[in-house]
Amino acid sequence: MIRHLFTLIWNRKKSNFLMITEIFFSFIVLFGVLSLAFFYLDNYRKPLGFEYDRVWVMNMRWNQEKPEEVRNIQYRLKQQLKSNPEVAQVALAASNIPYTMNTSNTGFNYNNRFTMADWFTVDKDFAEVMQVDVAAGRWFTTEDNAAGTKAIIINQALRNEIFPDENPVGKVIREKDNPDRKIVGVVEIFRQKGEYSSDKPGYFEYLNTDYASNGTAGGTLDNLMIRVKPGVTRAFEEKLMKQASQIAQGWTIEIKTMNEMRTSDNKITLIPLVIFSVVCGFLILNVALGLFGVLWYNINRRISEIGLRRAVGAASGQVYRQFIGEVLVLATFGIIIGIIIALQFPLLQVFGVQTGVYVAAILGSVLVIYLLAAGCAAYPSQQAASITPATALHEE
Amino acid sequence: MNNYTLNPLATNNASVDTPPHHQKTVIKLTDIEKVYQTKTIETVALHNINIAIRKGEFVSIMGPSGCGKSTLLNIMGLLDEPSSGTIEIDGASVKSYSDKVLARLRNEKIGFVFQSYHLINDLSVVDNVELPLLYRQLSGSDRRKRALAALEKVGLSARTKHFPNQLSGGQRQRVAIARALAGQPEIILADEPTGNLDSVMGNEIMDILLRLNEEEQTTIVMVTHDELMAKKTERLIRLFDGSQVS
Ligand SMILES: Nc1ncnc2c1ncn2[C@@H]1O[C@H](COP(=O)(O)OP(=O)(O)OP(=O)(O)O)[C@@H](O)[C@H]1O
Ligand SMILES: [Mg+2]
After folding, report:
1. Which residue range or ranges hold the ABC3 transporter permease C-terminal domain (chain A) (predicted)?
2. Which of A52, A221, B2, B230 satisfies CB 3.0 to 4.6 Å to B60 for a cystine?
């Protein structure tokens, strides 16, 4: 019977072409949406590499002060904030902290291996504030204050790219025009862009922000990261603000909880998925209506065929199954073309998304398209099956 | 009722001198009524029909247009239900049969031939002939074998890969007969099989049916408008306005 259906569809390929094309397009769009959704889902299940809860971020914008002056003020502000009983720890970090749009990246070269890597400048207290765990080696300490080389800590993704078979701890990265960078540790993961982002190569670079021991070296950092103790409420913000305005006079200070930053950043991340899904939804609705209409039309045109099949021995249920089967075969043609296209994504690795995500998206799309086709075919097919044979044969 | 002696195959009145294979009744209609009910009018298509078709008979049905011939044939072929009365196939009433059982009876016992052929244009000749076999448990090669054998019988072995619209009317009707034969039914019900054909092609079709009846003892009930065709059969049933007149 299946072969019979394939023969029928194949012989009617001209009139079925439009429907196959429609099914193909909806398959592709659905595949896109599901790929994105599964990509997010896959990422969502991975660890972030830090704890955003109870972290408050004080963003600072200063005026015409010289860098040493800025560092001096920041140092004093950090000490002041830390002295509050509500505060567990305070760290200074560059602008590209988690849940911001800011990105810093740079090439990473070692032993003829190269990758682009995110690059986060932080001080030694950052790990404690963000609860970053070190997997190998150690976190930054005052040992790293020694001038000459810069201490860095790489993430596992960077290690996999550059040091697949060797222990990176202790390795020194030498590049002309750049100070030497020495790897002192490895962290498992640190996904700055949040739970929906993929795990990318990246490293922390140490900056000594202890003004008393620092003199003039190093740059300036924009954010004070504050880990507050459990039970601290938003009312504490006012106190922080007051202390900041006394020490950093004339600076523009903004305080946000990382929870808030996370909520708004994740919303922005999800917007494309939502838009894409809505478009996909309309497309699928359109395809569903189209399928339904075409089926309805086809079945009405084929009433005498239905009568004939009943006359030669098809039971009503067989007519029903035949029409559903035809639509599924039709869908199969569209799906096969769709899969051929969809398979190019994992094969060519265009977006560097894991193959499993694409496979799941393909399977999901196949399932949805089959369900859609069967759903659209159910009613027309049932109508076809309920025609009495004599009436059907009457029609010409 | 049935005393045409022109048929070279049946020289005797069946009710007087029944050959052995004529004894078993394959289709028996008793007190059949068929009323078509539409919104405004009620059409009595068949009234008080009592017919027994015996195995191996070649029966023709005649009557003016609209007198109920097709309706009668459809009821005999289990394609339509009578409003009242009973249909027996091989001595058993089909009243309580489910759609599935009726479909199987149609598939195994009965072959249909229609005036307008009812071929599926998107299927090749051989695929069309295979159609009844699709509803049986048969392997693909078995189906093909039987379809080709049926086409051979109607002399169309050279056209198996053609499509219906590449054939003449007579050839199409031969395909339709091959389709009816493919399932090796006991009974063939033919509704004006020569109605759309000229006399030469009509005679070809008629010869095929006569040969089937003679050589394979296939029971045939044929609706026709053509007295000459009817005279070639053993028995004639005349209908007028839904009732039997002979
Ligand atoms: N589905 C139907 N609904 C209503 N009336 C019908 C239906 N089918 C047939 N009839 C009516 O029943 C009567 C018998 O129709 P039938 O088709 O059996 O005639 P027929 O003898 O085969 O005619 P013809 O020689 O023209 O084929 C006609 O009056 C017809 O109008
Ligand atoms: Mg008729």
Report:
1. 279-389
2. B230
